[in-house]
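Incident log entry.

Two folding requests arrived from the same account within the same minute. Monitoring flagged them as a possible duplicate submission, but the sequences differ. Recording both here for audit purposes.

Request one:
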Amino acid sequence: MDAKKIIAGGFIGGITLLIVNFVISALIMLVAPYDALTLGGMRPAEDPLILFLFAYPFVLSFAAAIVFDLVKDALHGPPGSKGAAFGAALFLIYTVPSVFITITSMNYPAGFYLEDLLFGAVGFPLIGAIYALIWEQL
């Protein structure tokens, strides 16, 4: 494992996912608005633990960077293709089952499901490309 690349990928990917999350959330609020803090099971806004929600993109990015380091040799082609393939795999392994279980088990607004789906569809190929470039350049 290459710790330097994992740390770089984790931080850069985390910042990227945080930005992607904010942009997609803003766009979804224009199309299918909802208030996440009023959904069942959410902590109240006053609860200090809710701040850890902003760490989620970084936790996800560091975990994905470790996985990328483990599977990078199985990915073929130029960095863009490797990143897209890795992002597609993350989307299929993480986003699709997550959205499926949420849709089938929770009665949330359509915007919630759409936001989750778009986050994976946009964010995961993007961080895959970032990882591929980092692993090639560093």
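Request two (distinct sequence, not a duplicate):
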Amino acid sequence: MENIIDTISLLLVVAIVAYPFFLARYAEKHSKWLWLVVIIVVLNGFLSFGYFAFDDWITRWQLSYYGYDFYGMSEKEIYGNVETCNRERVDCLLHHWMGIGWPLRAMFMYVMVTLLHLVACLVMHGLFRLGHAMRKT
């Protein structure tokens, strides 16, 4: 189960990091750099939202799978259905789940990744132009 979750998370991270490089080649062929910037801004929003929403949903699902009671009033009620061998795993999941919420984490990631992608596209655009200038001479 954890391998599947880690694989899906890894695929989402790879998609977030890699897609601008594929789009930049298309934008260079068709001279659509403004559309590339718009697509990056919109797609980063969707991918950031999707990654952290998935992370929150899967953490809640794992907690309920291990027997954690979200509506318990005392520690005995909350951990009543959790087996002792799974107690440490549930505590790790709770520490991951608590803290700042996933929407705030998604916003932070959106800002950082969007800036990184825009700088990377600017550098790639400069390299493409430099390559075209070198081929013409």
